[in-house]
Amino acid sequence: MKYSSGVLSVLPLFYVGWADSVLSPSEMQIIRKHIQKMDFLSPEDKILLISWTDQKKQPNEETYKSWLEEIRKYAEKQEGQTRKSLADLGLQLAKESSQQKDGKIWDSPKVKSAVEKLEAALGVDNELSKVVFYSSLSPETSVEIETYSAFDTAKMQSILDGKWAPLKNKVKKLLQDPLFAVPVEMRDKDELRALILKQTIGLADQGYGAYAYPKEYGGTGEPAGTVAIFEALGMGNISLLIKYGVQFGLWGGAVYQLGTAYHHKTYLTPTGTGELLGCFAMTETGHGSNVRDLETITTYDHAKKELIVHSPTYTAGKEYIGNALHSQYASVFTQLIVDGVNHGIHAVIVRLRDENHNLLPGIKVEDCGYKMGLNGVDNGRIWFDNVRVPLKNLLNKYGGINDNGEYQSSIKKDSKRFFTMLGALVGGRVSIAAASNTIAKKSLDIAIKYALKRRQFNSTGGEKETLILDYPTHHKRLFPLLAKSYALTFALENLRNKYGDNYGSSDQREVEALAAGLKSYASWHATSTIQECREACGGKGYLAENEFTDLKGDSDIFTTFEGDNTVLLQLVAKSLLTEFKQEFNDGGYTAIARYALRRVSARMTQLNPFNTRNTNSEHILSRDFQDSALKYREEKLFFTLSDRMRNFIKKKLSGDEIFLRVQTHMIALAKAHVEYYIYQAFATHIDSMEEGPERKAMETMLSTFALDAIYADNGWFLENEFISGDKSKAIRKVLNKLYRTIRPMAGDLVKSFGIPESLRKAQIATGESIYA
Question: Which residue is catalytic, options 70, 222, 319, 562?
Fold first, then answer.
């Protein structure tokens, strides 16, 4: 493509500005402002250049290549000469391409000053330009790569980030833009909420709001990508993370997953751009996690073809609704009553406010006020007093009302329809699980970096005091948590992939159970990791400037929203029992025989005296032992739970009474199942890696995760005679040896999380330490 001289004058700046495929909001504003002031550009030049600053319409690969070709035509003539700055390079390009009559324009001090000001404002990397544009520069000198004693952290980060690494990197770069800065001292909720709303719109402007939606509504059709965005946002302010999730995931997700074509066309595009703000009104004061028995009722008036949404009691009020103060609309979960018959929970779109943001008649909204954290999220309570909305506002993918005023659904059984609807909304749990691990990683990054600088007491007799990371107590506190975050990374990657593959499916049972288990495990991991890391940083960890204050306050809610963790683990156990029941129903006597054989073989192979007492470290570090231990625990808990339930059934106990009798047993089974799943996901990923230092480090983390899980539950393993007392001691000794192996590479292990320096604001983990 042929470009004008004016366009060529700033083309190198555009190329390097787009080098990482991200132009942040501040960069876009800077470029547009400077371009408008450049009177040597024609109106056509300005229109073209400004069009190249739109993040949602970023230049395609063909355009990007054409820029590079134009720049290199000139740059290659400069071999052996001094490399020029981007401004000089652009001006020389313009001069050579222009007609003789206007060539002198590009020597003008005024023009040069304008281009140089744009270069300075963008802060672009001239060193990068020398590598990219001047082809004679040798590979050896073009990029300087540090050498690490254990492994390459850049390669390790690439492994951890997986297929979504480019998208995560874009989000991380974006978060470093001034628009997304949140001052530590900003504590006023109204001020913070206004800033977080502005930042949420900023994410929408980058195309991230609509990312999961179909292309015709401004998205990419990649729901797994939205989870990757959410995961990366966990490195920044968590109020923004949640606001993003509520607006585009919960509200937008309900419209897309539970609505039909009319709802998609009406609401999705403005939702994705942030022009229409919505909230997800499910939880109620009186019912919490018990969605099936919500009190809000919606009665159909066939004469007027309207739905009447009503909160019959105070406890029917929608509680803790994110975006409640900013929203114009709500997706309200309610009992749907048609012709006197209750058809169970459905979702109805209700408008809350008019164009001037005034509440509409019948709507009452109260601010939840200050919370333990997340004060940038406008949580509120909502009540409805016989609010009428058109019938078309019913999200009717799984159940609707026909022209004759009759309820109809392709899913005849109420319970199946209910669980199908809830399963369609599983994305929230998937996203919270991913973000939880990011927050745990950030906490570990801070604590370990501080421990590599802070010295305390002289335990070696040398001149300096001892680094606190050299103390075995510090190893025991932090390294198992570090291994757990590594292990969770790959289990969560599996979950993200399954969620993306099943998005829009009416059968989400596998994803729902896995999301429930991993959300519980990951959010509990985040909570315990933040606390341990805070304590490991002593009094310094208590200062707001070192981030644990906000990390703890903002993420603590993760253990109870999107489903209380203990309740979710019951869902996991019920899912396992349902699969077991189905196996019996399908297999008859063969399945029963197979079940009995599995029990006998498990006891014969795992409980022989040699395995029980084998204290050899090679055996303890082997995959065979670790896998069999975690697998045996899950299967034994499963078998004993099913036996207990069968015995209670024989005694004719009611279903509710049986559930109460075995509730804690179900939780133990679910935890064992999740932990074994995480181990398998991690081991499978390691097996796919090539040999090298990265794989060796991963093997160390896998063994640390597995043995820590076994030793943490050694009471159960001892009670069930899977290990002896001597073997329990041996496992502890092997763990201490693994910690000593991790110690030299601990800094590199957290560096591989890829947390940018500017997003790790903790003073104790940045720059030069006064303690070193």
Answer: 562
